[in-house]
Amino acid sequence: MLRLECPICGLRDESEFSYGGDASVTRPADGERAMRPWLDYVFCRDNPRGRHLEYWQHQHGCRQWLVVERNTLTHEITSVRLARDVAREAAAAKAGAPASKTTETIDPEPAPAVEASTEAPPRKPRKRAATGARKRRKTTPAPETSS
What we know:
The protein has two helices and six strands. By secondary structure, it is α+β, with helices and mostly antiparallel strands. The strands form two sheets. Strands 3-4-5-6 form a four-stranded antiparallel β-sheet. It has a two-stranded antiparallel ribbon with strand order 1-2. The chain is extended. A hairpin with a 3-residue loop joins strand 1 and strand 2 (10-13).
């Protein structure tokens, strides 16, 4: 069983967390029209040996997204950081500015990805058929058996 050191809640059991996927994959730009980068992003994943970055969400605790560096051979946890802090550092590095110190305040919605463009689009509500439009299945009574 893995034990993860949540920066907010402390040392916790793996059962409190949900695996969120590979944290080293970057999403293609929003305006990307070529199919190959999207195919690689969605379907092509490496199966690395050794140290690997992964997303985990603390589902039964603070509900924060974490970036966990884990050795896939020994399951040793090297580091656990809040994903929002990793995203801020990546944005600061991209802009060429030094990363600012992290604050102790907790955002109401944690950033689930390294880059801001990795958010999933909001889902559209399903259209429901009118109640009178549903077809009802006709049932036939079971044949009577005589004994």
